[in-house]
Amino acid sequence: MAFFVDFGNCATYNGLYITNGDLAGLIPNIESLCALEEVEKVKTLILYYSYSGNTKALATKRAAKLGTDAEEIAEVKKPFILVGIYRAWKRKRTAIQPIKSQLDSYDKIIIMSPVWGSYPVSAINSVIEQLPTGKKIELIMVSAGGGTKASAEGTKALVTKRGCEVVGYTDIVARRKGGEVAGREM
Questions:
Q1: pLDDT-based confidence at 150, cuts 50/70/90?
Q2: Residue 60, SS3?
């Protein structure tokens, strides 16, 4: 007779098929097996800006997959796209609605931004200005294919200047197919 043993959060590491009696006398305290593989829980927030909905779709999918909170960043006044591209190139900030999430209460913040002219949108520069020091920051840039080679190092520098650690930087190409948005790393 076989059964599946699932050790809670450790199922990824310790889910085993065993037969009746295989563990008898081998593991006196089964909970200690799980404790050996315990993974540190990191409270994470995804902050994202989306102009056309592509970044929003990818951010909400990622939040659901990771089981994290997500908040959309909204500008006080949405810019005309050409003005937005110019501001992005110049690394200008823009007025954004107040961030509702308490940033201090998160260990890690994932920032997702559309890419305009190889740069993150100016609303993201405003978000970076509000980051509390000491946070782990992951940057995810969403484009139609151009990427951010020209601006990646400068964007990371803005984050580290705030006293935060960049723990990841990813360029993602977003594609719409049948109403769904899919992303893949560049």
A1: confident
A2: helix
Structure-token pair, residue 97:
């609605």
**What are the pLDDT digits (tens) for 68-100?**
999 999 999 988 888 888 888 888 999 999 999
Cα 56 to Cα 73, 98, 111, 112, 164, distances in angstroms = 10, 18, 11, 9, 24
Q: Is 36 left (phi over 0), alpha (psi -120 to 50) or beta?
A: alpha
Q: Is the dihedral of CA 103, 109, 113, 117 positive or negative?
A: positive
Q: Are 121 and 98 in contact (CB under 8 A)?
A: no
Q: Which two tokens stand for residue 38?
A: 């315990």
CATH code 3.40.50.360 region(s) in the chain? 44-185
| Entry pTM | 0.75
Greatest distance between any 2 Cα atoms in the chain: 71
pLDDT in tens, 155-182: 999 999 999 999 999 988 877 776 666 6
Superfamily of domain covering 44-185: Flavodoxin domain (3.40.50.360)
Q: Is 13 helix (H, G, I), strand (E, B) or coil?
A: helix
Phi first, then psi: give them for residue 138, nearest 5 degrees: -115, 130
Strand partners, 2: 19
